[in-house]
Design goal:
Number of strands: 0
Number of helices: 4
Largest sheet: none
Number of domains: 1
Structural class: mainly alpha
Shape: elongated
Radius of gyration: 17 Å
Distance between the termini: 39 Å
Helix content: over 70%
Length: 105
Amino acid sequence: MKNICSACHGNSWNNDFYDGFDKAVQEYSEVYFKPAKAKLDELYEKGLLDKTKFFDEHLEVEYYELWRHEGRRARMGGDDDGARLRLVARLLRVQTAFCQLYGRG
């Protein structure tokens, strides 16, 4: 991808852009996905959720929404050049969904 970008942009711009994108993906993973997955696994281990069939319980659907829809918005928001405000708005949606799912905030 950097080869395509380098047709118009210099190395410094390319490196800064991809570093920022990598950080956005890493932040989503560390702050939202990993804790949500750990909580879901904990609920399965305690027998509070049935692991035999996914999507048969509300928390499984909410987890999917956090991972697939909100997570995608957050991760892909990191690749919008010049759109940091949209990224912040997307991360706010992720944070709101995460807090609703786990009763925080």
